[in-house]
Amino acid sequence: NSRKVIFSGIQPTGVPHIGNYLGALRNWVKMQREAEPDDQLIFSVVGWHALTLPQDPRKLLQTRNDTFAALVAIGLDPERSIIFHQDQKEVLYFTRTRLAISRNANDESEVDESMLNTGLLTYPVLQAADVLAYKTTHVPVGDDQQQHLELCRDLAESFNRSTNNSLFPLPETVFNPAKRILSLKDPSAKMSKSARDENSRILLTDDTITIRNKIRGAVTDSLSGVSYDTEARPGTSNLLTLLAGCLDEDVHAVAERYKDKGHGALKIDVTDVLEETLREPRAEFFRLRADPGHLQALADKGAERAKEISQRTLAEVRRLVGL
Ligand code: ADP
Ligand code: NA
């Protein structure tokens, strides 16, 4: 049986940036388009995972809802795929505890009793619980998730072994070959939601003028002409990566077209192509956000479908372990 169950999640950090889109989300839409009819696709906004770090509750609610809206806005289809809020499922996620850890093996009185953030350990376990609840076979993730998936496979394998069963498929990592998008202001760092300077990232909701201003202000270099050289010319190369990413073309082929042009021409074209790429998702995002009732109905439906599957898996787990 080669039926695929594809599962992935995104943090509830709000409107995604173009790095999230080219590096992960667009690939989810592609997988949806290319899936066989009986393949199952499941995408979740992992609200509970946000609690690994301190959060402002009102702000979190907004960014959580915006993240969900963005998934639908980019073309994930709530009929074809299951799109849901992980936090609509019953989980208690703890990330802080008092652990007695001796700092000095020779002196047991020297014990550190402060609250420890155990999220580093509990985060990947919660993630594995998500992945395995749907008997996932394929997980599209970034390369930073490789270790987490390794742990997930270990947990699945040890459960299968201890119950002498093969309930859980060992989920395969599906890597996205897309190149990393860098900060427009500091091309030594990746484009990120958490960077302080808002001009360092392009959001899915940025309007034409905002895109133009951010690209115009993007850091490049003072060399003449345009060439792709990530070591010597990270800022210029990043613009080429953005352009090639949006056009879904090879970056070297794109660079070749600009070798006799300047940064000005490159920036104009990057701006146009970003506008072209974002126009529809942006409009769809604002349409969705204007109707919170509709969004909630979509989320409820997704959560219901997700629960149906995970409850079936749990029933099998209970039977196997004798509960
Ligand atoms: P951020 O770092 O902005 O908070 P996340 O860590 O939530 O983003 O990442 C969500 C997804 O987007 C992951 O699959 C990650 O690999 C991808 N991603 C994040 N930033 C970038 C980037 N600058 N370029 C390409 N992909 C990215
Ligand atoms: Na991150």
TrEMBL record:
Top-level taxon of the source organism: Eukaryota
Family: Belongs to the class-I aminoacyl-tRNA synthetase family.
Protein name (record): tryptophan--tRNA ligase
